[in-house]
Each structure stands twice: as structure tokens, then as C-alpha cells.
Amino acid sequence: FPVTIKKISDEVFDKLQLVYEKHSGKKLPVGGKVDVGNTLSLSHSYEDFAGTLFKTKSPEEVYDWMRRKGIKPSKAGVQIALSLKADGHSITVETKYNKKTKEQYIHKALTRGKDGVGKDLTPIFKEYEHLLYLPVIDGKDYAVGYEAVMTYSNFTLFHEQEKETFNNPRSIIGAVLSDRGNQYFPYINLIALRIKTEDDELSRIDALEYINEINESQNEEIDFGFWVGELTDKKNKGYMLGGDYYKDFNEALEDFYQCVI
User: Fold this and answer.
1) Angle 59-68/249-256 helices, nearest 10 degrees?
2) Which end of the chain is less congested by CB atoms within 10 angstroms, N or C?
3) What global pTM score does this model have?
């Protein structure tokens, strides 16, 4: 019998995924299959940290999430933090604090991996550690969850300065992760999305402050904002970390979803 394959939009897929996970109690695999060269068994010191955050595509989905969590607009003191989504390769960088130099250094850099198998990128990240901004957080060890992406300006610059040709930015990143093009690392943009200390005592708001600090230091050409909305008794308000202040929660949320990088 002939088989008809019909493509569906990302939005429809996300809705079907939520229905599947709700009724099956299982999680669908996240992300596409990426050729990362020689794989090996790896261990994340922050195992529950390597993963993805809940994704939304509209303010309505945020309001629906609030209703399901029992968060009412009049509930004072509640803060809701959102970040833009970066679609690239997920990498966890584990850092340690050097008590003698009072500086942070890279301990391990690992891909998210699947079923305990992934790629150890520690040698590459140590080689280019000077390109990363590693803030000291009260002398604690911590991990940063990055998404490795490449801006089209860097993609253009790459083809102007290098002899090789790639069809898209993701292919160059794949080459770096596969040990076929370590020298191309400086063209990659590392977007910090998550951070977690060894004692797991950072609040979501404090974590976003550090994440924002890292991204501003490492990616001058990308304004990768985070949004924090706070609910109050008298009037809702929202604001962007390090950005514009808004008086109205709903207005700020609408504006945030208009952001496109």
C-alpha cells in the first residue's frame, strides 16, 4: 500500500509531544542526531542539569502554564523568568574554583549525550578557555549549560577567511565537535542558558543575572536578553534584565515574544 508522509509544523509537533508525554509518562528524545566523531561513555557531575527547559511560543502558553501552576495575577511576590531559545548543540561546561589563584577554570566540557554516551570536548575548551568568561561565584564550583550556535555574520566571516566551504553554520559547529576543525572554535557563539552551583543554592533570578553577565561578556554582537516578570498586589510589572523597564506585566510579556535574533 502507498504511504503518504505529511509534514507538520513545529507548533503542532510541540502540542502532540505534550499530549504524548502526558498520557505515556515518557519523554521524547530531544534534538536531532549529530555526528560527533568518536563517542565515549561520559559522566556528568550535574546529571539532572543536562537537559532542556520547558518551551513556549506565545504569551498565551505562559498564561496557560500559570493557570496550571495555580499562579494568579494578583499573587504578590511571584517572579517568572523566561529566556529566548537558542537552537544549536548543547554543551555542559563544568568549572572549579582555584583557591590559590582565586580564579575559575574549566574542569570538563561534555556534550549532553544520550544514554551515557557522548563527546568529551574538554581539550578543545581548555585550548580556547581564554575566550570564555568564567565569573567567580562565592568560590564555588559550578556548571554552565551552553548552546553552541553561529551568527550569520560569523558564518560570512568564516568563508571570507577560511579555505573550506560549509553549507550552513551548524555544519561548522559539527566539524568542531567531531575533531575535524578545532581551529574553527573562535567562530562559534556560546550562549549560556543555565547555570548551577555545586550546592544548588542559586535562585532562578540570581542564575539569570550570572547568565546575562556571561553572555554580555562573551557575545558582544548578540543581545540575548532574559525577561523577568514580577506580580504585585497593586499592578503587575515586568522588566528585561539589564534592559528596559516596563510597568505592565502583560505588555512586557507581549514585547518579549516579539524578540527575534
Assistant:
1) 130
2) N
3) 0.71
